[in-house]
Design goal:
signal-anchor; carbohydrate metabolism; Rossmann fold; transmembrane; glycoprotein; six-stranded parallel β-sheet
């Protein structure tokens, strides 16, 4: 059966519509052919025949041009909107849709059909589903995707940036080495800033070193998690990336710079390190998390987006498994991804209560007393103050109330991203009681598929990231690096719906028993209506362009190219 990808999965980085210049060329007539029409000796019937032939040939050419996508080697800025799939969770009235559905199902076991794809250098998600049928008004609103308002990826750099690139991308004397610590998405943030700092210092970047994670005992290295050659190739016009230091720059003892203030500017970076880098040839930085300012010049903001959404592609083994799990969720219909932060270490670090009762809370309190270095929450605040300030993850009971108020159907399918919850299945009972269709990656995977990644929390987190990236709706229970990364990535790839729980504002209503269920639902929906439209980035410390790519990395149609 013919592959249906031309209709079902659209690559937002390819233009399937001919440009005005292409149309002009298609419709232009060469001088020899023009002479046929102007010649007085040509019979009228012959002229009509030639004219008909030309129009037929032109129409055929346009049809072929529209059918075959353009090359993926270059990425153009084209309009991205949430592509809807004809698959519905309800019976489809259209015979055409039934044909498409049959085509999808027939190819579901093929590795080359109906799965997330790579368009140019970016990972392209599966289409969102068209949900129809006997839905309530609240359920219809819940599944509704936000309007893109005409925004699409737009990473065109200035002339000055491109001129400097010719020299910087060939740098062979100055090298930057960066050690990235923390979990997967925290490491990704540091890698993104490492690329930007290398650009600021006009240095070549040595492939970042992933520090061994002592909490999760993860010893993964960069090539285990990311596609090295893709990383180098995507950034070759911006900086030079090398796998290791050349022998001429190896020294017996290298100073590692760790004391960097928060929110430093490119000027500070250059003033602090450029002279040292010129003299020594190598600069080693560690602990870059949130050290570089969130407010950078336009070219550097676009570079951040290029690294996050294009260069940092997961390794092929991770992509393969992640795509397979996403496809298995997607083929069954629309699904919601919940990133639940219910792991033991999260409760320890935040200083919050688990919602599982005194017995479990006592275990967390004891760990905090014996290992106070892990507590990152504000130590001068009580649990209630932390919770009402929005510093605690939503537990399963609170998430269930939020979903019900937002209009999520009880029959909805939920992918649960995140590590093993503290308390095991007991931790999810309040959620499962209301929404029974909960699925984890361990349930989706077939025998042996997850085995290569069981000792790598970063790889497992990457698989969660891929399945969540492809979901129709994404909802995190806590802020965190993964939630922000997915929020921005999904916005960049077509403004797929992400709902950020407004904990600080909504939690007081959770405590107010005088509010009716109907009024409570109305209040909760009104607090989360920002998910229905692109939200421009605010120039504040916590507003990263990676989470809010509008407007620096996304423009309205017709205002620039990648």
């Amino acid at each position: 059966m013919a592959r249906p990808s031309g209709r079902i999965i659209k690559n937002p980085f390819m233009s399937l519509t001919p440009s005005p210049r292409s149309l002009t060329q298609l419709f232009s007539v060469s001088p020899p052919l023009t002479s046929l029409f102007s010649s007085k000796k040509t019979s009228p019937s012959l002229s009509i025949f030639i004219l008909s032939f030309l129009f037929s040939f032109t129409f055929l050419g346009i049809s072929i041009f529209r059918f075959f996508p353009s090359s993926q080697d270059s990425i153009h800025c084209s309009i991205i909107s949430p592509t809807t799939s004809p698959i519905s969770s309800h019976p489809l009235p259209s015979s055409y849709s039934q044909i498409i559905l049959t085509s999808l199902l027939s190819g579901i076991n093929s590795d080359n059909k109906i799965q997330p794809r790579i368009g140019g250098t970016a990972m392209v998600p599966l289409p969102v589903h068209l949900v129809s049928g006997n839905l309530s008004e609240e359920e219809t609103e819940f599944w509704k995707q936000p309007d893109s308002n005409g925004y699409r990826p737009c990473l065109g750099s200035t002339v000055g940036y491109r001129k400097r690139s010719a020299k910087i991308s060939k740098e062979k004397n100055r090298f930057l080495v960066v050690v990235a610590a923390g979990g997967l998405n925290q490491q990704k943030n540091q890698i993104i800033d490492a690329v930007v700092i290398a650009r600021i210092l006009e240095a070549a970047l040595v492939l970042p070193v992933l520090q061994v994670n002592m909490i999760w005992e993860d010893e993964s290295e960069f090539p285990d998690i990311f596609d090295v050659e893709h990383f180098k190739k995507t950034l070759r016009a911006d900086i030079r990336v090398v796998s290791s230091l050349p022998s001429s720059h190896l020294v017996a003892k290298q100073t590692i710079v760790t004391q960097i203030p928060y929110g430093v500017s490119p000027f500070w970076i250059r003033a602090k390190f450029f002279k040292q880098l010129n003299q020594e040839g190598v600069l080693v930085l560690k602990g870059l998390d949130s050290k570089l300012s969130k407010n950078l010049p336009s070219d550097l903001q676009k570079l951040r987006c290029k690294v996050a959404f294009h260069a940092l592609r997961f390794s092929k083994p991770i992509l393969q498994v992640g795509n397979q799990l996403a496809r298995r969720m997607w083929i069954e219909g629309p699904y919601i991804s919940l990133h639940l932060r219910l792991e033991k270490d999260v409760w320890v670090r935040t200083g919050c209560r688990t919602g599982l009762g005194p017995e479990y809370d006592q275990i967390i309190t004891q760990i905090q007393k014996t290992q106070p270095q892990y507590l990152t929450g504000r130590v001068n605040m009580s649990y209630s103050q932390r919770r009402l300030s929005g510093l605690c993850p939503l537990n399963a009971f609170e998430m269930a109330r939020l979903l019900k108020a937002l209009g999520a159907p009880q029959s909805g399918r939920f992918y649960i991203a995140g590590g093993e919850p503290f308390g095991g299945s007991k931790a999810l009972e309040p959620l499962a009681a209301v929404f029974p269709n909960l699925v984890r990656k361990e349930m989706l995977a077939r025998d042996g598929e997850l085995s290569p990644f069981l000792n790598s929390s970063s790889a497992l987190s990457a698989i969660d990231y891929i399945v969540s990236f492809n979901s129709d709706i994404f909802i995190p229970s806590h802020g965190g690096n993964m939630g922000r990364a997915l929020q921005g990535h999904r916005a960049y790839m077509g403004h797929r719906k992400s709902i950020r729980p407004n904990k600080r504002t909504m939690l007081p209503f959770f405590e107010d028993s005088s509010i009716s269920d109907e009024e409570f639902s109305s209040i909760i929906r009104s607090l989360h209506n920002k998910s229905m439209k692109p939200e421009p980035r605010k120039k504040q410390r916590d507003y990263d362009v990676i989470a809010y790519p509008v407007p620096e990395c996304m423009c309205r149609h017709g205002s620039g190219i990648f």
